[in-house]
Design brief:
The complex is a heterodimer of chains A (about 120) and B (about 110). By secondary structure, chain A is an all-beta fold. Chain A has no helices and 11 strands. By secondary structure, chain B is an all-beta fold. The termini of chain B are far apart.
């Protein structure tokens, strides 16, 4: 079974600074990878996803992530943090099930704090 | 344009009581799933379904039952609630054609078991 590890349950950055949220996955086959964001008291929304092709994926709100197969990583970055980026971020991987479909497994999440 | 609708939004139960969390989607998604979210644990998959009449267990299925009689609905049943089931529950759906498809989440149901 696949698993997802997010390094750091909390990350704090200053407004305007680089945001880096780390994600590593375990997979024996090419994965489908996702980053979701959760704002307080809301459900999760997709930031970006990797399927095939270009390994640098751009998402909404200036976020991007790079798929590195050799490192089994899919780290999320944003060049300049904004106060509105404060939220919890989840890395996820989609794996095939025995019934022929796919199920999505999430990491434990990283809460991003942005200081003025 | 409702998407995924969960009811109730809040519920308080006593230990041993039963209840059902409802989930409905109007996007004709084959895949539906239930997650629980706990601090420091992220989202953990409880049960999922790839179509009407087909369900399977996720990472933490104990204490929960599901059924899928229609494409639209995927209720989650707690037969005898325990304090360890205090959590926020999310229902999510997507098409099943590819694992690359994005999950659409409901707004969540906050359950407290006393």
């Amino acid at each position: 079974a696949q698993s997802v590890t997010q390094l750091g349950s909390h990350v704090s950055v200053s407004e305007g600074a680089l945001v880096l949220l780390r994600c590593n996955y375990s997979s024996s086959v090419p994965p489908y990878l996702f980053w979701y964001v959760q704002y307080p008291n809301q459900g999760l929304q997709l930031l970006l996803k990797y399927t095939t092709g270009a390994t640098l994926v751009k998402g909404i709100n200036g976020f991007e992530a790079e798929f590195k197969k050799s490192e089994t990583s899919f780290h999320l970055t944003k060049p300049s943090a904004h106060m509105s980026d404060a939220a919890e971020y989840f890395c996820a991987v989609s794996e095939q099930t025995g019934t022929g479909g796919f199920k999505t497994i999430f990491g434990a999440g990283t809460r991003l704090f942005v200081k003025a | 344009n409702a998407g995924v609708t969960q009811t109730p939004k809040f519920q308080v139960l006593k230990t041993g009581q039963s209840m059902t969390l409802q989930c409905a989607q109007d996007m004709n998604h084959e895949y539906m799933s239930w997650y629980r979210q706990d601090p420091g644990m992220g989202l953990r998959l409880i049960h999922y379904s790839v179509g009407a009449g087909i369900t399977d267990q996720g990472e933490v299925p104990n204490g929960y039952n599901v059924s899928r009689s229609t494409t639209e609905d995927f209720p989650l049943r707690l037969l005898s609630a325990a304090p360890s089931q205090t959590s926020v529950y999310f229902c999510a759906s997507r098409t099943v054609a590819s694992g690359a498809n994005v999950l659409t989440f409901g707004a969540g149901s906050r359950l407290t078991v006393l």
